[in-house]
Amino acid sequence: MRWTVIALYLAASLVVGMIYTKRAGQSAEEYFLSDRKLPWWLAGTSMVATTFAADSPLAVTGLTVNTGIAGNWLWWPVVMSGMLTVFLYARLWRRSGVMTDAFQFVLAMAGSIAFAVFAPRAVGGLAGLEQGLEAKFPGGGVTAIMPDLDSAWMPAMTFFVYVAVNWSASW
User: Fold this and answer.
1) Contact in structure between 99 and 29 (CB atoms under 8 Å)
2) What is the gyration radius of the CA atoms in the chain, in angstroms?
3) Distance of alpha carbon 141 from alpha carbon 167, whole angstroms
4) Rounded to an integer, what distance in angstroms lies between the CA atom of residue 7 and that of residue 20?
5) Nearest alpha carbon to residue 24 among 11, 33, 37, 14
6) Please, what is the Cα angle at 12 between 10 and 14, to 5 degrees?
7) DSSP label at 128?
8) Nearest to 92 by CA among 37, 160, 43
9) What are the tens digits of pLDDT across the range 126-170?
């Protein structure tokens, strides 16, 4: 009985694979995006599902063994990120017309990279940038613009920066 179920599962997988091989071979967009015919929520769920692997339970177990039950809280931000991906970012990614997450990242970071290259030149190089920051924030220099890590607002600021960066990357 067990071998019959396994054989049927493998046969069904093979049939589905053979049916969709022709369709997926038509274009890269068909292969990666199912020709953009999937609903946004299903595409988002698929993106989140690909982040889980056979080692995910092992990682959670290792966190719990090494840090106690409190270590279990370390992976909850991943759950929240996954929920944001499905219900917020998937719809925006679809609208942006990109094919892969890597291409979305390149589009989102292009402006940041250009800014990082050209901004220091506009103020006289890194030395000019440091002098400007020292004039504006005496005594602390570059690190004076960083918030205090012990601040009660740090978790909220981290969350909002995360959401803002992902939101802006999706537009």
Assistant:
1) yes
2) 23
3) 30
4) 20
5) 33
6) 70
7) H
8) 43
9) 788 777 777 877 776 555 556 677 777 778 888 888 888 777 665
* Nearest-angstrom CA–CA distance, 132 and 119: 12
DSSP one-letter code for 87: I
Residue whose C-alpha is closest to residue 85's, from 104, 61, 72: 104
Tokens standing for 140? 């602390």
Q: Is the pLDDT of residue 34 over 80?
A: no
CB 71 within 8 A of CB 64: yes
Contact 90, 44 (CB under 8 A): yes
Residue pair 89/40 in contact (Cβ under 8 Å)? The answer is no
Residue with tokens 């981290």: 158
Note the pTM of the prediction, 2 decimals: 0.45
Q: Mind listing the pLDDT tens digit for each residue in 85-125?
A: 777 777 777 777 777 777 777 777 777 777 777 777 777 87
Distance (Å, whole) CA 35 – CA 151: 47
Given a contact cutoff of 8 angstroms between Cβ atoms, the answer to whether 94 and 43 are in contact is yes
- Beta carbons within 10 angstroms of residue 85's beta carbon: 19
- Count CA atoms within 13 Å of residue 154 on its CB side: 7
